[in-house]
């Protein structure tokens, strides 16, 4: 099916997610994204120790970069690496189609500030996160995939009409984080 990327599959399991599954997914997502964003941070820190650039500039820039990557973790195919491996994906709650890049960004934009609250809410009401309510998305069961399947979905994501807007909002968001030096 040519539009397979856009349409939620008929065999997707719409059963509510359990608190244990939601916690496992949130922790895997957080661990993987921390690892992915941490590698460039430690490499850049090493370069700053060698005198290539100042540590103050480095810390601010790396926070900027890490936030941009973290809040867009679901951008490719409406699935983060953890969602692919554990068998979940995000859909638009109203249409049933895969969530757009803008919805994925909106869903995650409060994570740096509300992650502990999201964890508590997810434990008691695992079927929907605060970010899901804000973005109009829903997490559903989907076919499990290998983590490298994200590479296959990149070209499909590039055809998303809202991708430019999403990246512009992501850039603005990261600049706000950078300038207010909240971390």
How many β-strand runs? 2
Low-confidence stretches: 1-12
The dominant shape is globular
Give the termini distance in whole angstroms.
45 Å
Q: Strand-and-helix sequence, N→C?
A: HHHEHHHEHH
Quick one: biggest sheet?
Answer: 2 strands, antiparallel
Helical fraction equals: 55-70%
Could you tell me the mean pLDDT? 82
Percent of sequence in beta strands: 5-15%
Radius of gyration: 17 Å
Q: What is the number of domains?
A: 1
Continuous helix count: 8
Q: What structural class results from the helix and strand content?
A: mainly alpha
- The neighbouring-strand order within the major sheet is 1-2
Which terms would index this structure?
183 residues, mainly alpha, two-stranded antiparallel ribbon, 2 strands, 5% strand, disordered N terminus
Account of the 3D structure:
The chain is mostly helical. The protein has one domain (19-177). The protein is 60% helix and 5% strand. The chain starts with 18 loop residues before the first helix and ends with a helix. Mean pLDDT is 82; it is low at 1-12.
């Amino acid at each position: 099916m040519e539009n397979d990327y856009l349409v939620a599959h008929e065999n997707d399991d719409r059963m509510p997610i359990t608190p244990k599954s939601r916690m496992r997914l949130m922790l895997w997502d957080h661990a993987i994204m921390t690892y992915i964003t941490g590698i460039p941070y430690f490499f850049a820190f090493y370069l700053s120790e060698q005198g290539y650039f100042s540590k103050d500039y480095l810390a601010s820039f790396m926070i900027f970069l890490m936030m941009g990557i973290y809040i867009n973790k679901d951008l490719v195919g409406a699935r983060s690496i953890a969602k692919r491996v554990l068998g979940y994906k995000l859909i638009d709650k109203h249409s049933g189609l895969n969530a757009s890049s803008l919805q994925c960004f909106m869903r995650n934009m409060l994570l740096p500030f509300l992650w502990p609250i999201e964890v508590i809410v997810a434990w008691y009401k695992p079927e929907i996160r605060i970010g899901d309510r804000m973005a109009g998305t829903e997490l559903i069961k989907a076919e499990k995939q290998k983590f490298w399947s994200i590479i296959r979905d990149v070209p499909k994501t590039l055809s998303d009409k809202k991708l430019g807007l999403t990246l512009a909002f992501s850039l603005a968001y990261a600049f706000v984080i950078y300038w207010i030096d909240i971390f």
